[in-house]
Amino acid sequence: HVPELALVRFVVEDYDKTSKNDFVGQFTLPFTCIQPGYRHIHLLSKDGTSIPPSSLFVNVRITKLT
């Protein structure tokens, strides 16, 4: 296991049964940068520019697998 190389990607898409899913925003960060607790994940466009005020409000819990 190499957590230093792991990435976590959040992707938001507009789901629609009549057409393909439309990309809304995304954010990718190294696993080692994630801190437990409530966090705002600010979304970026496909070209990496900020999409204010869009964000995800997440509760992060990290547990070790044995």
TrEMBL record:
The domain of life for this entry's organism is: Eukaryota
List the InterPro entries. Answer: C2_domain_sf, PI-PLC_fam
Q: What is the lineage of its organism?
A: Eukaryota, Metazoa, Chordata, Craniata, Vertebrata
Protein name per UniProt: Uncharacterized protein
